[in-house]
Amino acid sequence: MTVATANSERSTSQIEYEAVVGPGAMDQDVKKQAIRDEIRERIARLDESERHAASIAACERLIGLDAFKSANTVMLYLPMADEVDVTNIALRCFQRGISVCAPRINWETKRLTPTEIHDFDDAIEIGRNSVPEPRPGRPIPPSDIDFIVIPGVAFDAHGARVGRGGGFYDRFLGGSGLRSRTIRCGIGFDVQMVDEAPSLAHDVRLDMVVTDRRTIQLRAKKPV
Fold first, then answer.
1. How much is the pTM?
2. Which residues does the chain have with pLDDT short of 70?
3. Which CATH number does the domain housing residue 144 bear?
């Protein structure tokens, strides 16, 4: 089969899309969506008590990490119902005097702005698409952040992550002025682990992945 014949069997939109983001990108997007559908079904099979217990276990694992204990500024996410509830991590930070920030979202530019918070109640508002965000407050320079707790739909043992599809975290982690030593730690339920999470060149790999059952430290290249 000639290149011209092969291209004729692919849609014009696919060719144009891959010209922008790279070859094979559309196939990877299809695989990512299939994983999202599968993981959402797995999470839906967990009842409320199971999600609560798994959240506590995952938070305790993360709180026990040396990299977390040595952090002065931590960036958390504000959890949705199908994500690990990181409230216990926030509370531990507040108790230890660790500065905490969470992302405000610019939906037009698809950018995240770390914004300082002092509690997990009054400081939160429900934004667009029912996503919780911190109320407007003091922006925290990305270069000040020591440890980032990152949500996702799926993770693998090599630090690859599948998000919800907006690319917000990949843009933030890949080009926001973060220091090279800032720890990028994914957290999820263990049912969110997959053998291989599809990734593209612009997808940022994580330094650590924590679930209720395991801790994987990629910088050390060994599971704990």
1. 0.85
2. 1-26, 122, 176, 220-224
3. 3.40.50.10420
